[in-house]
Amino acid sequence: MKKDIKNIREVFPVLSREIYKKPFIYLDNAATSQKPLRVINRLKDYYSNENSNIHRGVHFLSQEATSAYEEVRRQVAHFINAASSKEIIFTKGTTESVNLVAATFGSEFLDKNDEILITQMEHHSNIVPWQMLCNRTGAILKVCPMLPSGELSEESFRQLLTEKTRLVAVTHISNALGTVNPVKKIIAAAHQTGAVVLIDGAQAVPHLSVNVQELDCDFYCFSAHKMYGPMGTGVLYGKESLLEKMPPYQGGGEMISTVTFDATTFNELPFKFEAGTPNVSGVLGLGEAIKFMNETGIDFIGKHEHTLLDYAIKKLSRIEGIIFHGQAADRAGVISFNLKGIHPYDAGILLDKFGIALRTGHLCAQPVIDFYHVPGFIRASFAVYNTEEEIDHLAEAIEKTRNMLM
Description:
The protein is an alpha/beta fold. It has 14 helices and 17 strands. It has helices spanning 2-9, 37-50, 60-79, 94-109, 128-137, 154-160, 183-192, 212-215, 240-245, 280-296, 298-316, 344-353, 366-371, 388-405; strands spanning 18-19, 22-23, 25-26, 88-91, 115-119, 140-144, 165-171, 196-200, 219-223, 234-238, 256-259, 264-266, 322-325, 334-339, 356-357, 359-361, 377-381.
Protein backbone atom coordinates (compact mmCIF):
# COMPACT_ATOMS: atom_id res chain seq x y z
CA MET A 1 0.00 0.00 0.00
CA LYS A 2 2.84 2.44 0.83
CA LYS A 3 4.32 2.00 -2.64
CA ASP A 4 0.92 2.66 -4.21
CA ILE A 5 0.41 5.80 -2.10
CA LYS A 6 3.86 7.06 -3.05
CA ASN A 7 2.95 6.72 -6.72
CA ILE A 8 -0.38 8.44 -6.12
CA ARG A 9 1.26 11.35 -4.30
CA GLU A 10 3.53 11.99 -7.27
CA VAL A 11 0.60 13.07 -9.46
CA PHE A 12 -0.42 15.82 -7.00
CA PRO A 13 1.99 18.73 -7.59
CA VAL A 14 1.12 20.71 -4.45
CA LEU A 15 2.20 17.87 -2.17
CA SER A 16 5.84 18.44 -3.12
CA ARG A 17 5.79 21.99 -1.73
CA GLU A 18 7.49 23.17 1.40
CA ILE A 19 5.71 25.53 3.80
CA TYR A 20 7.83 27.54 6.24
CA LYS A 21 10.77 25.35 5.15
CA LYS A 22 8.88 22.22 6.22
CA PRO A 23 7.28 19.47 4.11
CA PHE A 24 3.69 20.41 3.34
CA ILE A 25 1.13 18.18 5.07
CA TYR A 26 -2.39 18.71 3.80
CA LEU A 27 -5.13 17.48 6.16
CA ASP A 28 -8.01 19.75 5.16
CA ASN A 29 -9.57 17.41 2.61
CA ALA A 30 -13.11 17.73 3.96
CA ALA A 31 -12.95 21.38 2.88
CA THR A 32 -11.41 20.67 -0.53
CA SER A 33 -9.14 17.98 -1.91
CA GLN A 34 -6.01 18.61 -3.92
CA LYS A 35 -6.04 18.04 -7.68
CA PRO A 36 -4.06 15.47 -9.68
CA LEU A 37 -2.18 16.54 -12.81
CA ARG A 38 -4.73 14.95 -15.12
CA VAL A 39 -7.44 17.27 -13.78
CA ILE A 40 -5.19 20.33 -13.99
CA ASN A 41 -4.10 19.41 -17.52
CA ARG A 42 -7.70 18.85 -18.65
CA LEU A 43 -8.61 22.42 -17.72
CA LYS A 44 -5.51 23.74 -19.47
CA ASP A 45 -6.22 21.63 -22.55
CA TYR A 46 -9.79 22.88 -22.81
CA TYR A 47 -8.82 26.54 -22.69
CA SER A 48 -5.83 25.96 -24.98
CA ASN A 49 -7.52 23.87 -27.67
CA GLU A 50 -11.29 23.54 -27.24
CA ASN A 51 -12.56 26.80 -25.74
CA SER A 52 -16.07 27.31 -27.07
CA ASN A 53 -19.61 27.64 -25.86
CA ILE A 54 -21.60 24.42 -25.98
CA HIS A 55 -24.95 23.25 -27.32
CA ARG A 56 -25.43 26.36 -29.47
CA GLY A 57 -22.79 26.36 -32.19
CA VAL A 58 -22.53 24.35 -35.41
CA HIS A 59 -18.79 24.96 -35.75
CA PHE A 60 -16.18 22.32 -34.95
CA LEU A 61 -15.01 23.60 -31.55
CA SER A 62 -18.55 23.97 -30.24
CA GLN A 63 -19.48 20.48 -31.38
CA GLU A 64 -16.30 19.04 -29.89
CA ALA A 65 -16.80 20.78 -26.53
CA THR A 66 -20.48 19.82 -26.45
CA SER A 67 -19.67 16.17 -27.08
CA ALA A 68 -17.03 16.13 -24.32
CA TYR A 69 -19.35 17.91 -21.87
CA GLU A 70 -22.26 15.53 -22.45
CA GLU A 71 -19.95 12.53 -22.22
CA VAL A 72 -19.10 13.62 -18.65
CA ARG A 73 -22.82 13.79 -17.87
CA ARG A 74 -23.13 10.17 -18.94
CA GLN A 75 -19.98 9.38 -16.95
CA VAL A 76 -21.46 10.93 -13.78
CA ALA A 77 -24.72 9.01 -14.26
CA HIS A 78 -22.76 5.77 -14.45
CA PHE A 79 -20.56 6.77 -11.48
CA ILE A 80 -23.55 7.05 -9.13
CA ASN A 81 -25.74 4.57 -11.05
CA ALA A 82 -28.47 7.03 -12.07
CA ALA A 83 -31.14 5.56 -14.32
CA SER A 84 -30.51 8.18 -17.01
CA SER A 85 -28.15 11.05 -17.80
CA LYS A 86 -31.30 13.22 -17.87
CA GLU A 87 -31.23 12.93 -14.08
CA ILE A 88 -27.82 14.66 -13.83
CA ILE A 89 -27.94 18.45 -13.42
CA PHE A 90 -24.66 20.35 -13.39
CA THR A 91 -24.48 23.11 -10.78
CA LYS A 92 -21.82 25.23 -9.05
CA GLY A 93 -21.63 22.75 -6.17
CA THR A 94 -23.58 21.08 -3.39
CA THR A 95 -24.76 24.43 -2.04
CA GLU A 96 -26.38 25.45 -5.31
CA SER A 97 -27.83 21.96 -5.73
CA VAL A 98 -29.64 22.20 -2.39
CA ASN A 99 -30.80 25.73 -3.17
CA LEU A 100 -32.11 24.56 -6.54
CA VAL A 101 -34.29 21.93 -4.88
CA ALA A 102 -35.48 24.36 -2.21
CA ALA A 103 -36.38 26.99 -4.80
CA THR A 104 -38.11 24.67 -7.27
CA PHE A 105 -39.46 21.55 -5.61
CA GLY A 106 -39.95 23.41 -2.33
CA SER A 107 -41.82 26.35 -3.78
CA GLU A 108 -43.94 24.14 -6.00
CA PHE A 109 -44.93 21.40 -3.55
CA LEU A 110 -44.67 22.78 0.00
CA ASP A 111 -47.39 24.83 1.65
CA LYS A 112 -48.04 26.41 5.01
CA ASN A 113 -47.65 24.00 7.94
CA ASP A 114 -46.00 21.32 5.82
CA GLU A 115 -42.90 19.99 7.57
CA ILE A 116 -39.25 19.71 6.52
CA LEU A 117 -37.09 17.40 8.62
CA ILE A 118 -33.32 17.89 8.82
CA THR A 119 -30.74 16.89 11.43
CA GLN A 120 -28.61 18.61 14.04
CA MET A 121 -25.39 17.67 12.23
CA GLU A 122 -26.10 19.39 8.90
CA HIS A 123 -23.73 21.71 7.08
CA HIS A 124 -25.10 25.26 6.83
CA SER A 125 -25.81 24.59 3.15
CA ASN A 126 -28.39 22.02 4.21
CA ILE A 127 -29.94 24.27 6.85
CA VAL A 128 -30.20 27.83 5.54
CA PRO A 129 -32.00 27.10 2.22
CA TRP A 130 -34.73 25.25 4.13
CA GLN A 131 -35.07 28.10 6.64
CA MET A 132 -35.47 30.50 3.72
CA LEU A 133 -38.06 28.19 2.14
CA CYS A 134 -40.01 28.07 5.41
CA ASN A 135 -39.98 31.87 5.56
CA ARG A 136 -41.42 32.01 2.04
CA THR A 137 -44.03 29.30 2.36
CA GLY A 138 -44.94 29.03 6.03
CA ALA A 139 -43.62 25.47 6.17
CA ILE A 140 -42.16 24.25 9.48
CA LEU A 141 -38.56 23.18 9.95
CA LYS A 142 -37.95 20.31 12.37
CA VAL A 143 -34.56 19.08 13.55
CA CYS A 144 -33.60 15.55 14.53
CA PRO A 145 -31.15 15.70 17.46
CA MET A 146 -27.91 13.77 17.71
CA LEU A 147 -26.31 11.84 20.54
CA PRO A 148 -23.01 12.67 22.32
CA SER A 149 -21.36 9.97 20.18
CA GLY A 150 -22.06 12.12 17.12
CA GLU A 151 -24.71 9.72 15.82
CA LEU A 152 -28.31 10.59 15.02
CA SER A 153 -31.03 9.68 17.48
CA GLU A 154 -32.94 7.19 15.35
CA GLU A 155 -35.73 7.10 17.93
CA SER A 156 -36.17 10.87 17.65
CA PHE A 157 -36.10 10.66 13.87
CA ARG A 158 -38.96 8.15 13.86
CA GLN A 159 -40.96 10.36 16.23
CA LEU A 160 -40.39 13.52 14.18
CA LEU A 161 -41.28 11.84 10.89
CA THR A 162 -45.04 12.29 10.43
CA GLU A 163 -47.68 12.47 7.71
CA LYS A 164 -47.00 16.22 7.58
CA THR A 165 -43.36 15.65 6.59
CA ARG A 166 -43.00 16.59 2.94
CA LEU A 167 -39.21 16.60 2.67
CA VAL A 168 -36.31 15.08 4.56
CA ALA A 169 -32.82 16.53 3.99
CA VAL A 170 -29.88 14.77 5.62
CA THR A 171 -26.13 14.55 5.18
CA HIS A 172 -24.71 11.20 4.12
CA ILE A 173 -21.47 11.88 6.05
CA SER A 174 -21.04 14.71 8.55
CA ASN A 175 -18.33 17.16 7.55
CA ALA A 176 -17.70 18.03 11.21
CA LEU A 177 -17.71 14.56 12.78
CA GLY A 178 -17.21 12.04 9.98
CA THR A 179 -20.38 10.19 11.04
CA VAL A 180 -21.77 7.97 8.29
CA ASN A 181 -25.52 8.17 8.61
CA PRO A 182 -27.81 5.20 7.86
CA VAL A 183 -29.27 6.98 4.86
CA LYS A 184 -30.83 3.91 3.27
CA LYS A 185 -32.91 3.32 6.41
CA ILE A 186 -33.74 7.03 6.61
CA ILE A 187 -34.89 7.10 2.98
CA ALA A 188 -37.07 4.00 3.38
CA ALA A 189 -38.71 5.37 6.54
CA ALA A 190 -39.35 8.76 4.91
CA HIS A 191 -40.90 7.18 1.82
CA GLN A 192 -43.34 5.26 4.02
CA THR A 193 -44.85 8.58 5.07
CA GLY A 194 -44.79 9.96 1.52
CA ALA A 195 -41.86 12.33 2.08
CA VAL A 196 -39.26 13.16 -0.55
CA VAL A 197 -35.60 12.77 0.48
CA LEU A 198 -32.54 14.86 -0.40
CA ILE A 199 -29.11 13.54 0.55
CA ASP A 200 -26.14 15.88 0.91
CA GLY A 201 -23.40 13.66 -0.44
CA ALA A 202 -20.56 16.19 -0.53
CA GLN A 203 -18.54 14.24 2.06
CA ALA A 204 -19.59 10.78 0.89
CA VAL A 205 -18.85 10.63 -2.83
CA PRO A 206 -15.06 11.14 -2.34
CA HIS A 207 -14.82 8.22 0.08
CA LEU A 208 -17.31 5.49 -0.77
CA SER A 209 -19.29 4.04 -3.64
CA VAL A 210 -22.70 5.68 -4.06
CA ASN A 211 -25.58 3.96 -5.84
CA VAL A 212 -28.56 6.30 -5.99
CA GLN A 213 -30.93 3.65 -7.33
CA GLU A 214 -30.05 1.27 -4.52
CA LEU A 215 -30.45 4.05 -1.96
CA ASP A 216 -33.71 5.10 -3.65
CA CYS A 217 -33.10 8.75 -2.73
CA ASP A 218 -35.07 11.39 -4.63
CA PHE A 219 -32.21 13.91 -4.78
CA TYR A 220 -28.47 13.52 -4.21
CA CYS A 221 -25.97 16.41 -4.24
CA PHE A 222 -22.18 16.57 -4.39
CA SER A 223 -19.26 18.81 -5.37
CA ALA A 224 -16.33 18.19 -7.70
CA HIS A 225 -13.77 20.02 -5.58
CA LYS A 226 -14.05 17.56 -2.69
CA MET A 227 -13.41 14.58 -5.00
CA TYR A 228 -10.14 15.71 -6.63
CA GLY A 229 -11.95 17.88 -9.21
CA PRO A 230 -12.19 21.63 -9.87
CA MET A 231 -13.95 24.20 -7.74
CA GLY A 232 -17.20 25.77 -8.92
CA THR A 233 -18.66 22.52 -10.27
CA GLY A 234 -21.23 20.24 -8.72
CA VAL A 235 -23.98 17.76 -9.40
CA LEU A 236 -27.63 17.46 -8.52
CA TYR A 237 -29.10 14.04 -9.15
CA GLY A 238 -32.88 13.94 -9.17
CA LYS A 239 -35.38 11.28 -10.12
CA GLU A 240 -36.62 12.06 -13.62
CA SER A 241 -40.28 11.89 -12.56
CA LEU A 242 -39.68 14.62 -9.96
CA LEU A 243 -37.50 16.83 -12.13
CA GLU A 244 -40.16 16.81 -14.84
CA LYS A 245 -42.69 18.28 -12.42
CA MET A 246 -40.39 20.98 -11.05
CA PRO A 247 -40.26 24.50 -12.54
CA PRO A 248 -36.94 25.92 -13.77
CA TYR A 249 -34.51 27.33 -11.24
CA GLN A 250 -33.31 30.30 -13.32
CA GLY A 251 -34.32 31.88 -16.59
CA GLY A 252 -32.05 32.67 -19.52
CA GLY A 253 -30.30 30.98 -22.39
CA GLU A 254 -30.20 27.21 -22.89
CA MET A 255 -33.07 26.41 -20.50
CA ILE A 256 -35.66 27.46 -23.09
CA SER A 257 -37.30 25.77 -26.04
CA THR A 258 -39.03 28.83 -27.54
CA VAL A 259 -39.21 32.47 -26.43
CA THR A 260 -41.68 35.14 -27.46
CA PHE A 261 -42.80 38.26 -25.64
CA ASP A 262 -46.08 36.50 -24.91
CA ALA A 263 -44.75 33.25 -23.49
CA THR A 264 -41.76 30.93 -23.09
CA THR A 265 -41.64 27.17 -23.28
CA PHE A 266 -38.89 25.36 -21.45
CA ASN A 267 -36.24 22.93 -22.60
CA GLU A 268 -36.26 19.22 -21.83
CA LEU A 269 -34.28 17.61 -19.04
CA PRO A 270 -31.59 18.19 -17.94
CA PHE A 271 -31.20 21.50 -19.78
CA LYS A 272 -34.29 23.04 -18.17
CA PHE A 273 -32.21 23.55 -15.00
CA GLU A 274 -28.98 24.76 -16.63
CA ALA A 275 -29.53 28.39 -17.59
CA GLY A 276 -26.66 30.36 -19.12
CA THR A 277 -23.13 29.48 -20.13
CA PRO A 278 -22.00 26.54 -17.97
CA ASN A 279 -18.63 25.89 -16.36
CA VAL A 280 -17.49 23.70 -19.24
CA SER A 281 -13.89 23.33 -18.08
CA GLY A 282 -15.02 22.45 -14.57
CA VAL A 283 -17.28 19.68 -15.84
CA LEU A 284 -14.49 18.29 -18.03
CA GLY A 285 -12.20 18.38 -14.99
CA LEU A 286 -14.84 16.51 -12.99
CA GLY A 287 -14.73 13.81 -15.65
CA GLU A 288 -10.99 13.40 -15.14
CA ALA A 289 -11.45 13.32 -11.35
CA ILE A 290 -13.93 10.46 -11.73
CA LYS A 291 -11.46 8.61 -13.95
CA PHE A 292 -8.78 9.10 -11.30
CA MET A 293 -11.05 7.72 -8.57
CA ASN A 294 -12.16 4.77 -10.68
CA GLU A 295 -8.60 3.88 -11.68
CA THR A 296 -7.33 4.25 -8.11
CA GLY A 297 -10.29 2.24 -6.87
CA ILE A 298 -12.99 3.67 -4.63
CA ASP A 299 -12.77 0.66 -2.32
CA PHE A 300 -9.01 1.17 -2.08
CA ILE A 301 -9.51 4.86 -1.27
CA GLY A 302 -11.99 4.06 1.48
CA LYS A 303 -9.86 1.30 3.02
CA HIS A 304 -6.74 3.46 3.02
CA GLU A 305 -8.56 6.36 4.68
CA HIS A 306 -9.98 4.03 7.34
CA THR A 307 -6.49 2.73 8.03
CA LEU A 308 -5.32 6.31 8.51
CA LEU A 309 -8.30 7.08 10.73
CA ASP A 310 -7.61 4.14 13.03
CA TYR A 311 -3.91 4.97 13.16
CA ALA A 312 -4.55 8.64 13.90
CA ILE A 313 -7.02 7.91 16.70
CA LYS A 314 -4.49 5.63 18.41
CA LYS A 315 -1.63 8.06 17.87
CA LEU A 316 -3.45 11.21 18.99
CA SER A 317 -5.10 9.48 21.95
CA ARG A 318 -1.70 9.44 23.65
CA ILE A 319 -1.55 13.23 23.74
CA GLU A 320 -2.36 14.67 27.15
CA GLY A 321 -5.37 16.98 27.18
CA ILE A 322 -6.77 16.03 23.77
CA ILE A 323 -10.57 15.91 23.59
CA PHE A 324 -12.22 14.11 20.67
CA HIS A 325 -15.62 15.17 19.36
CA GLY A 326 -17.78 12.49 17.79
CA GLN A 327 -17.01 8.80 18.07
CA ALA A 328 -19.63 7.19 15.85
CA ALA A 329 -19.37 3.46 15.24
CA ASP A 330 -19.52 4.10 11.48
CA ARG A 331 -17.39 7.05 10.46
CA ALA A 332 -15.25 8.32 7.60
CA GLY A 333 -11.74 9.81 7.64
CA VAL A 334 -12.39 12.84 9.84
CA ILE A 335 -11.09 13.54 13.34
CA SER A 336 -12.37 16.59 15.19
CA PHE A 337 -10.76 17.49 18.50
CA ASN A 338 -9.68 20.20 20.90
CA LEU A 339 -6.78 20.66 23.29
CA LYS A 340 -7.89 21.34 26.85
CA GLY A 341 -7.43 24.99 27.78
CA ILE A 342 -6.39 26.07 24.25
CA HIS A 343 -8.55 27.91 21.74
CA PRO A 344 -8.77 25.97 18.45
CA TYR A 345 -7.84 29.04 16.43
CA ASP A 346 -4.63 29.51 18.39
CA ALA A 347 -3.73 25.86 17.92
CA GLY A 348 -4.48 26.05 14.20
CA ILE A 349 -2.20 29.06 13.75
CA LEU A 350 0.71 27.26 15.39
CA LEU A 351 0.10 23.97 13.57
CA ASP A 352 0.24 25.88 10.30
CA LYS A 353 3.76 27.02 11.22
CA PHE A 354 4.73 23.35 11.31
CA GLY A 355 3.59 23.07 7.69
CA ILE A 356 0.31 21.32 8.54
CA ALA A 357 -2.95 22.45 6.94
CA LEU A 358 -5.94 21.73 9.19
CA ARG A 359 -9.36 23.34 9.54
CA THR A 360 -10.38 25.17 12.71
CA GLY A 361 -13.57 26.96 13.72
CA HIS A 362 -17.24 26.12 13.33
CA LEU A 363 -16.68 24.21 10.05
CA CYS A 364 -19.93 25.63 8.58
CA ALA A 365 -21.73 23.46 11.13
CA GLN A 366 -22.38 25.77 14.06
CA PRO A 367 -25.17 23.67 15.60
CA VAL A 368 -22.68 20.79 15.97
CA ILE A 369 -20.16 23.06 17.69
CA ASP A 370 -22.87 24.41 20.00
CA PHE A 371 -23.91 20.84 20.86
CA TYR A 372 -20.45 20.18 22.31
CA HIS A 373 -20.29 23.59 24.05
CA VAL A 374 -16.93 24.57 22.55
CA PRO A 375 -15.83 27.64 20.54
CA GLY A 376 -14.84 25.48 17.58
CA PHE A 377 -13.12 22.30 16.45
CA ILE A 378 -9.69 21.43 15.13
CA ARG A 379 -10.34 19.05 12.24
CA ALA A 380 -7.98 16.70 10.44
CA SER A 381 -9.49 15.05 7.37
CA PHE A 382 -7.84 12.47 5.16
CA ALA A 383 -7.58 11.65 1.46
CA VAL A 384 -5.99 8.85 -0.50
CA TYR A 385 -2.63 10.64 -0.71
CA ASN A 386 -2.15 11.03 3.06
CA THR A 387 0.25 8.78 4.99
CA GLU A 388 0.90 7.44 8.46
CA GLU A 389 4.16 9.41 8.47
CA GLU A 390 2.15 12.61 8.09
CA ILE A 391 0.05 11.61 11.09
CA ASP A 392 3.25 11.07 13.07
CA HIS A 393 4.29 14.63 12.19
CA LEU A 394 0.81 15.87 13.15
CA ALA A 395 1.03 14.21 16.58
CA GLU A 396 4.47 15.66 17.17
CA ALA A 397 3.28 19.14 16.11
CA ILE A 398 0.25 18.92 18.41
CA GLU A 399 2.50 18.01 21.34
CA LYS A 400 4.76 20.99 20.62
CA THR A 401 1.75 23.29 20.16
CA ARG A 402 0.30 22.18 23.48
CA ASN A 403 3.58 22.75 25.28
CA MET A 404 3.95 26.22 23.77
CA LEU A 405 0.41 27.37 24.62
CA MET A 406 -0.07 25.86 28.06
